[in-house]
Amino acid sequence: MGVILGLTAGEPVMKIVLSVKMISGQVIFFLVPLIIFGCVAPSIASLKSNASRVLLFAFTLAYFSSIGAAFFGLLVGYEVVPMLHIAPVAEGLRSLPAQVFILEIPPVMSVMSALVLSVFVGLSAAWTHSRNVVDLLHSFREMVLLLVRKILLPVLPFFVAANFCVLSYEGAVTHQLPVFLSVIALVIVCHYIWLAFLYLAASVYTRRNGWKVLKHYGPAYLTALGTMSSAATLGVSLECATQTRMLRKETVDISIPLFANIHLCGSILTEVFFVLTVSQLLYGTLPGIGTMILFIVLLGFFAIGAPGVPGGTVLASLGLIVAVLGFDEAGTALLITIFALQDSFGTACNVTGDGALALIVDKFTERSKERDK
After folding, report:
1. What whole-number distance in Å separates Cα of residue 290 and Cα of residue 245?
2. Which tens digit of pLDDT belongs to each residue from 41-70?
3. Which of 102, 109, 158, 312 gets the most CB atoms within 10 Å of its CB?
4. How far apart, in Å, are the Cα atoms of 14 and each of 25, 157, 175, 338?
């Protein structure tokens, strides 16, 4: 709808669109530091207090699966993005009309301050075993997730539509839409390759046939395409994992809900690829390899605390995108916009990959019990 409106709108309509974009963007970026603190801090705080050998193994497994997918996306992106012949969008664009008014809603803190504060508060709560602080952080997370569901998610479609309307009005979509579609198609193929790798690795580690788990995940994959949320798909994911005889019920009950919140391999792979695309599109160059390695390593940690809602990964990592990659507001806005186009496929990859990790955890638990006897 945004693209169509941008192709036909005149200046009066575009002034309204720019106002919608500004207001919705201000609301979204105001909520970002709250999302970061509300999701990352309680995850870190509760890790040590609830940690066991199996739980720590599950967290480590989810982290390395996610950053492994990210490095895979990085390698493919460095090879493919330069071949797409992406011209910077500033070349030959139509000028936008002046905005009717300016409304500033500054966040309570910067995104980097929110990241550092969430780490420090989470660690201190874990080290002091403060049950009251941990409970307070979890209550705050519930409040933040309600703000996400009741305010951010209803506003997000207008923000995405306004961004595409502006790009269409300027003329960027006409030249770059084929690039966006080709990148999305390539990312989906990368999802399937990474899922094949995860289930192959699980089969080798457990000496079981991973296909017997994967074949039951069709309903979960399709559900995730519609919900764009690992949390919303959790009921179907549990049902799919329970149907296979390869996983014990106690493993399913613990690992599937856990991985639904911390294992985001598809979303992270997508985000890395889109970061490269947006950087080439807006700034005419790709980030350096050292910068991207640092970004991926940190992204893996903060993705563990990302909310299980549409766009949660990219929203939780905006601090890294700004602080490490140096993206400005235009870059982050475009990243959110194109990320929304494929969010359902990234979520489906996350959910389906959980089955492979659950299979590995099941085998690890079995071996741990044998060693303890």
Report:
1. 44
2. 786 676 554 445 777 788 889 999 999 999
3. 312
4. 16, 17, 20, 21
Of 65, 352, 138, 360, nearest in space to 233 by CA: 352
Reading the block at residue 61, the tokens are: 């497994």
Give the whole-angstrom CA distance, residue 353 versus residue 61. Answer: 11
Q: What is the distance between the alpha carbons of residues 92 and 106, in angstroms, rounded to a whole number?
A: 32
Here the tokens at position 6 are 């941008």
Q: How confident is the model at residue 254 (pLDDT cuts 50, 70, 90)?
A: confident
Tally Cβ neighbours within 10 Å of residue 129: 11
Q: Which amino acid is at 58?
A: A
> How far is 333 from 328, CA to CA, in rounded Å?
9
Residue with tokens 């506003």: 155
Q: Are 286 and 82 in contact (CB under 8 A)?
A: yes
Distance CA 77, CA 287 (A): 11
Residues 6+ apart with CB under 8 A from 65: 198, 263, 265, 353, 357
Q: Which of 20, 15, 302, 36 is nearest to 156 (CA)?
A: 20
Total residue length of the chain: 373
Alpha helices per DSSP H over the chain: 2-8, 11-49, 53-80, 111-128, 131-147, 153-170, 172-206, 211-214, 218-227, 234-243, 249-262, 265-283, 289-303, 312-316, 318-323, 329-372
Exposed e or buried b for every residue in 244-253, given b needs 16+ CB within 10 A?
Answer: bebbeeebbe
Q: Structure pTM?
A: 0.71
Average pLDDT over residues 103-113: 78
> What does the pLDDT average to over 297-321?
72
